[in-house]
Model the fold of this input.
Amino acid sequence: MDAEEEPVESGEHISWQTAEYQYYQKSRDWFWALFIMTAAFLVVAIITRNFLFGALMIIAGFTIALLGGKKPRQVEITLSGRGIQIENNLYLYETLTSFWIFYHPPDSKELSLKSEKGFMPYIKIPLGNTDPALVRRFLLEFLPEATQEESLIDIIARKLKF
Done:
């Protein structure tokens, strides 16, 4: 994993740089397992004569392979009195309903924000080297803390090291 910068704290904001998502180095075995699973679904599609499903499985396998090999870029995160800024996107506190910090060392340490927007209800932000207690204390001034459950997709992705 690339080196992450130490968080900068002032009375008015907290900022840090981190990878945009948790990255796991993929082995050849990981790609072979993906190929075998894709081929198995393709065989099922041929047997059932569902060629649309077969095409979808080929596209899905190819897309997962591309995304699995892609390395994350570094992003700048800033918590301020106005809202939470991720690169050039500012999420105002008025558009957020609550926050929760998922802490599963060493696998993940991330801030989850619940948004009022229906198409993007949760915004996940990696905390990198930032102290979760510091982030929590800062955010409690602006947002309520509400327990969130990890989605099944997030749990599976973490277990499969995707």
